[in-house]
Specification:
With 118 residues, the protein is mostly helical. Helix content is 77%, strand content 0%. The protein is built from four helices and no strands. It has helices at residues 2-12, 16-35, 45-68, 81-116. α2 (16-35) runs antiparallel to α3 and α3 (45-68) packs antiparallel against α4. It starts with a helix and ends with a helix.
């Protein structure tokens, strides 16, 4: 699963700056809706919630691009004992990180379906 996430994140690497731009636009839209609305009750909560949901998706994509595009490569040479332990520790950490990423992605998918009432 980590290799699949690494391949997808490397493929999405050219769109990294676009995720930041879209996140800034969404944050500006949220601030505009919350602060500069004429009446506080006029802010439509569903539109605001969809903006937060889109921001969560952008954060997940950006996290995937940042973390999984730089996976450590397993070395095949005869390394020292401490180097092998360090390598196994790094791979275990990335494995746990990928499981957490998948769980958060599933949670955002369920939240998306609940919010869109599909």
């Amino acid at each position: 699963m980590m290799t699949y996430l690494a391949k997808v994140s490397v493929a999405l690497k050219p769109f990294h700056k676009l995720t930041y731009l879209l996140a800034i636009m969404l944050i500006a839209n949220i601030v505009y809706q919350l602060i500069f609305s004429v009446m506080p009750s006029a802010v439509e909560s569903t539109e605001l919630m969809l903006n937060f949901l889109a921001l969560a998706w952008l954060a997940l994509v950006n996290f995937m691009i940042q973390v999984f595009s730089r996976l450590p490569v397993a070395s095949k040479n005869k390394a020292s004992f401490l180097t092998r332990i360090k390598s196994k520790f790094h791979h275990g950490f990335y494995y746990i990180l990928s499981l957490v990423f998948i769980l958060i992605s599933v949670a955002v998918i369920v939240l998306s379906f609940k919010m869109l009432r599909l």
